[in-house]
Write a structure and sequence with these properties.
α1 crosses α4 and α2 crosses α3. This protein is α/β, with parallel strands linked by helices and about 300 residues long.
Length: about 300
């Protein structure tokens, strides 16, 4: 009887290359060489009769067939890992790995206490945390889950809401003493605003307000625009550079310490949603499921208003 799966080593090589982003990085992870992995992937492509990887001098990408095969192969290896853990027992202690991508706002201000709690509860689980404002491709880049901001397009991913985060307008006391406090929305035209360029569109993110039940999306204009790291607007506002809009969970402590003051509080009431995303058709590992349940069970309701923003 011939062996049906004597090519699993080639499959493992392919998965390692995709997960680590290059033949070189994959070789380091598997303690081998890039040329060995290159030959393994070539054999696998010959066996399947399909090109799996798009190789260029600058980057490595997945073909559509490669994306599908990677997703299924990675799920299969996860099953092997779970089977080994079940057999070995480990005294019932959950083990494995979770790859998680989060935006800077959540990564710095919401996630740390949750990860500390997760680490105490599951000390054998390895967590790989990616903090970025770029929307990663969960499948192609090998992430188990991601936390994202805003209303999400119909991508085929499961989205479970974590919270509707209220937004505030703030500036430093020194700025207010120097420039005065705006009394109306129109007054903002005479102030230094600190807008943020959305990485997904390259456009300015509108500031959102609620005035007597009416929702307002207001586009700030300024000679200073901030991109990539949205926390930069808060740092600049704290130094007296201008006015910014940020999440209450970010600026609350600064307000309590007198580093920032809230402006136009009567226009509060808008929020933006944060959600955890994962692929529905890929079997999640027990470790990934535990992380998702911890995040969802810790979900917070909006503390001011119920509108989801943009």
């Amino acid at each position: 009887m011939s062996r049906k799966f004597n090519h699993l080593g080639d499959v493992e090589a392919f998965v390692a290359v995709v997960e680590h982003g290059s033949f070189t990085a994959g070789a380091v992870a598997l303690s081998t060489t890039a040329s060995v992995l290159s030959r393994a992937v070539a054999r696998l492509e010959t066996r399947l009769g399909r090109q799996l990887l798009q190789r260029t001098t600058r980057r490595l990408g997945l073909t559509e067939a490669g994306r599908l095969y990677f997703e299924q192969a990675r799920s299969a290896f996860s099953l092997f890992e779970e089977a080994e853990r079940d057999v070995l027992g480990q005294e019932g202690e959950l083990a494995g790995r979770v790859r998680l991508s989060v935006p800077t706002t959540y990564g710095h201000y919401r996630l740390p206490p949750l990860l500390a709690r997760f680490a105490r509860q599951y000390p054998q689980v390895q967590v790989t945390l990616n903090i970025t404002n770029r929307n990663v491709d969960l499948i192609a880049e090998g992430f188990d889950l991601a936390i994202r901001l805003g209303h999400l397009p119909d991508s085929g991913l499961v989205a479970r809401k974590l919270e509707d985060a209220p937004l505030l307008l703030v500036a430093s006391p020194e700025y207010v003493e120097r420039m005065g406090a705006p009394r109306t929305l129109e007054d903002l035209h005479h102030h230094v605003c600190l807008p943020f360029l959305m990485p997904s569109t390259g456009r300015l993110a509108p500031w959102v307000f609620r005035d007597g039940g009416r929702d307002i999306d207001w586009l700030p204009d300024s000679r200073l625009e901030i991109s990539d790291d949205v926390l930069g607007v808060v740092s600049l506002a704290e130094q007296g550079v201008g006015i910014c809009q940020s999440y209450e969970f970010i600026v609350r402590d600064r307000i309590e310490r007198g580093l920032l003051v809230e402006l136009l509080p009567r226009l509060r009431g808008r929020t933006r949603p944060f959600s955890v995303l994962y692929a529905p058709h890929r079997r999640q590992s027990a470790a990934a499921r535990a992380m998702i349940e911890l995040l969802v069970s810790s979900a917070l309701p909006a503390t001011d208003g119920s509108e989801n923003g943009h």
